[in-house]
Amino acid sequence: MNRVKNKVAIVTGGASGLGKSSAILLAREGAKIVVTDIDEEDGKKVVQQIKANGGEAIFIKQDVSKEDEWKNVIETTLKTFGKLHILANSAGIGLGGTVEEVTLEDWKNLIDVNLNGTFLGTQYGIKGMKETGEGGSIINFSSIEGLIGDPNLPAYNASKGGVTIFTKSAALHCARQGYGIRINSIHPAYISDTNGRKFSESSR
Ligand SMILES: NC(=O)c1ccc[n+]([C@@H]2O[C@H](COP(=O)([O-])OP(=O)(O)OC[C@H]3O[C@@H](n4cnc5c(N)ncnc54)[C@H](O)[C@@H]3O)[C@@H](O)[C@H]2O)c1
C-alpha cells in the first residue's frame, strides 16, 4: 500500500542521517521530495540518489532557524510540485556539557536550530498544507532526550522537551480548526547507524 504515492514531502536535515533515510524511503514509496539542509553538497547527493532510483526530488539550501529561508522553502515547494502534504523536521544538532559548563551562546544556538527551527517549520508547514487544502502530516524529530533528563545534555534536553510539548499544542490547534493536519513528535533512542556523520547522541 503506497500511502504516500504522489504526495509532496519536505525533509529538513535531509543531507544526513535520519533525514536522509526518511527522504530516500519516502521517495521509494512514491512521494516527491524536497530535501533541505545547510549542507548543500551532501543534500544534492541525496537528491541524485533519489533520482537515480527513479524518484522525483529537488534540493533547497536552508538554515531552519531563519524565517525568510522557510518562506523560500514553502514557496519553492508549491511552485515546483504544486502541493505540500508531508513535512519531516529532522534537522538538529547536539551539544554535550553539564549545566555548569554550557555557555549561553552555545545554548542559544542549539535552541535556535532544534526548537525555533521546529517551531518555524511547523508554522510554515501548516501554511503550505492549508494552501494545498488536502490535509497533511508534520513529523517533528524530538528524542528520548525530550522525555527524560540527562546530566550531560541540558540544552539538548530543553530543546527536545520543548519540541515534545510544542508539538502537542500545535496538533491540538490543527485538530480544533479541522485542518486535517496531523502533527506528531517522534522520540528515537540512540541510533548510531544512520548513515550520518555529524550528530550522535551516543557521543556523550
Ligand atoms: N541519531 C540519534 O541517535 C538520534 C536520536 C534521537 C533523535 N535524533 C534527532 O534526529 C534528527 C536527525 O539526527 P541524525 O542523527 O540524523 O543527525 P545528522 O547530523 O546525521 O543529521 C542532521 C542534519 O541536520 C543538518 N543541520 C544542522 N543544522 C542545521 C540547520 N541550522 N538548518 C538545516 N539543517 C541543519 C545537518 O547538516 C545534518 O545534515 C535530529 O533532530 C536529532 O536530534 C537523533
Give an account of the 3D structure.
The chain is of the alpha/beta class and 204 residues long. The chain has one domain (8-190): Rossmann fold. The chain is 46% helix and 16% strand. The protein has helices at 17-28, 40-52, 67-81, 104-132, 154-177, and strands spanning 8-12, 32-37, 57-61, 86-89, 136-141, 181-186. The protein has a six-stranded parallel sheet with strand order 3-2-1-4-5-6, with helices on both faces. The protein is globular. The N and C termini lie far apart (40 Å). The structure holds nicotinamide-adenine-dinucleotide (NAD). Nicotinamide-adenine-dinucleotide binds next to helix 1.
Secondary structure elements and pairings:
Blueprint: E1 8-12, H1 17-28, E2 32-37, H2 40-52, E3 57-61, H3 67-81, E4 86-89, H4 104-132, E5 136-141, H5 154-177, E6 181-186
Helix pairs in contact: 1-2, 3-4, 4-5
The protein binds nicotinamide-adenine-dinucleotide.
**What is the CATH topology classification name?**
Rossmann fold
Count the E strands. Answer: 6
Please state the average pLDDT score: 95
Cα separation of the termini: 40 Å
Beta strand %: 15-25%
- Helices and strands, in order, run as EHEHEHEHEHE
Question: Judging from the principal axes of the Cα atoms, what is the shape?
Answer: globular
The major β-sheet equals:
6 strands, parallel
Number of helices: 5
CATH homology superfamily: NAD(P)-binding Rossmann-like Domain
CATH architecture field: 3-Layer(aba) Sandwich
Protein name: SDR family NAD(P)-dependent oxidoreductase
Pfam family, one: adh_short
Organism: Lacinutrix neustonica
InterPro entries: NAD(P)-bd_dom_sf, Sc_DH/Rdtase_CS, SDR_fam
